[in-house]
Amino acid sequence: MKKAERARRTSDARLAAFHILRRVEEEGAYSSILLARTTDELNAPDRALCYELVLGVLRRQIWLDRLIEHYAERPADDLDPAIRRTLRLGLYQLRFLTRIPASAAVNESVNLARRVRQRRAAGLVNAVLRRAARELEYDPAAEIEDPIERLAVQTSHPRWLISKWIAQIGEQETEAFAQANNEPAPISFRLTLKGREEEVWRRLQDDGRLEASKIVPGAWRAIEVPSAALRELIAAGKIYLQDEASQLVAHVLGAQAGERVFDACAAPGGKTTHIASLTRDLALIIAGDVHAHRLRTVRDLAHRQGISRVHPVVLDAEKSLPFGDESFDRVLVDAPCSGTGTLRRNPEIRYRLVPGDFAELRARQRRILAHASRVVRRKGRLVYSTCSVEFEENEEVVNEFLRAHPEFTVVAEAVPARFRTPLGGARTWPHREGSDGFFMIVFERDGNP
Ligand SMILES: C[S@@+](CC[C@H](N)C(=O)[O-])C[C@H]1O[C@@H](n2cnc3c(N)ncnc32)[C@H](O)[C@@H]1O
């Protein structure tokens, strides 16, 4: 390749990041799913850069758009979306990726603009980024007086969401939480039924570092582990990547060998297969989900992990269930939710949510919990969990459920004391535990006929 040609080439990582960001913005796609698919297309360093660019831009989008507004002297929304995306990528590199020289960040972005639009657009990108490279100190949040607006811009969350959290948990916690949402999430995993501790330790510990979880038994955080070994162990079904707080759910469910378990919202199967592992595949587990295609993932996952007693059933848990009353020992409702506890992994969720979503989700969660509770046997246990930190989706759902179902009581001792909430459930936070934000609570049906 000639020098001039090379100079105009767009790097694979940046082009892939651009297209993922385009699909997230235009098609409502999820960045985590699209990033996971880059394994075959990009080499390891390009993949790492692509991950960093996509997640970084999404985590800082509001702040980056204010930078664009300042340097381009027009609102980011007035720009062609492809150019706005190119500028976000370029500005992210200039401000956050100090290992990339400013000249490379500018030139790569100009090449990208030429590739995805035309020459004129490249001129604009060049002018804006050159100015940005000269004025690297500018912080759009610093000049905002209103503290809520300042935090919203500083941490790139919609203002209404910041206000909502302040009303729930106060200013200080909200600030810590919002900042934690922009940090990378740790890689956490557990052994499956097939995984042998010695092998996993040997293969991952050799060139990397593993830390035992401080939150949940049997979980590890991987720090700088060789990614090829990690991928091989996952593909062989020997380990499963799962957030530590998410792993806590199967522990608090406490299923035992020989029991009948119903997992009402099971796909993609992280908790179902964990329950199977904890019971050594000696419990009968019915894995329900409304989406048949997602249940196929549960089946595949169980198969890969050597689990035989998981039975997927397509069902709508918002309606009457196809099982007899009081027919299960344990029931898990890991409800569909807003996912505000997972904003580090899924940063785009914050821009998609609208205030009205919570009432709608709460109504669905309440319906699922009511139907699922009917199949819990006397003295049997029912666990409700979400990866949302919102009170509407957790405390309010629980209170409504308890009012309508006096035959159930909360078993506060079933959740670890350090995470316990006044209601007797457990809540984890990214800024406190470093895990995802999760809520879980255990109910027991009384023994009376
Ligand atoms: C939070 S995810 C469950 C994650 C899963 N428990 C795991 O650990 O891998 C919620 C699931 O609920 C399913 N779902 C949504 N509405 C449902 C309904 N009415 N009945 C059953 N499943 C439903 C979704 O398809 C989704 O797979």
From TrEMBL:
Domain SAM-dependent MTase RsmB/NOP-type: 177-446
Catalytic activity: cytidine(967) in 16S rRNA + S-adenosyl-L-methionine = 5-methylcytidine(967) in 16S rRNA + S-adenosyl-L-homocysteine + H(+)
Chief location category: cytoplasm
Active site as annotated: C387 (nucleophile)
Keywords: Cytoplasm, Methyltransferase, RNA-binding, rRNA processing, S-adenosyl-L-methionine, Transferase
Protein residues bound to S-adenosyl-L-methionine: C265, A266, A267, P268, G269, G270, K271, D289, D316, D334
Any single GO BP term: regulation of DNA-templated transcription
A molecular function (GO) term: rRNA methyltransferase activity
EC class name: transferase
GO cellular component, one term: cytoplasm
InterPro entries cross-referenced by the UniProt entry: MeTrfase_RsmB-F_NOP2_cat, MeTrfase_RsmB-F_NOP2_dom, NusB-like_sf, NusB_RsmB_TIM44, RCMT, rRNA_ssu_MeTfrase_B, RsmB-like_ferredoxin, RsmB/NOL1/NOP2-like_CS
This enzyme's EC code(s): 2.1.1.176
Gene3D superfamilies: NusB-like (1.10.940.10), Sun protein, domain 3 (3.30.70.1170), Vaccinia Virus protein VP39 (3.40.50.150)
Annotated compartments: Cytoplasm
The protein's role, per its UniProt record: Specifically methylates the cytosine at position 967 (m5C967) of 16S rRNA.
Family matches, as NCBIfam families: PRK14902.1, rsmB
Family annotation (PANTHER family): NOP2 YEAST -RELATED NOL1/NOP2/FMU SUN DOMAIN-CONTAINING (PTHR22807), RIBOSOMAL RNA SMALL SUBUNIT METHYLTRANSFERASE B-RELATED (PTHR22807:SF53)
Recorded family membership: Belongs to the class I-like SAM-binding methyltransferase superfamily. RsmB/NOP family.
Protein name: 16S rRNA (cytosine(967)-C(5))-methyltransferase
Provenance organism: Pyrinomonas methylaliphatogenes
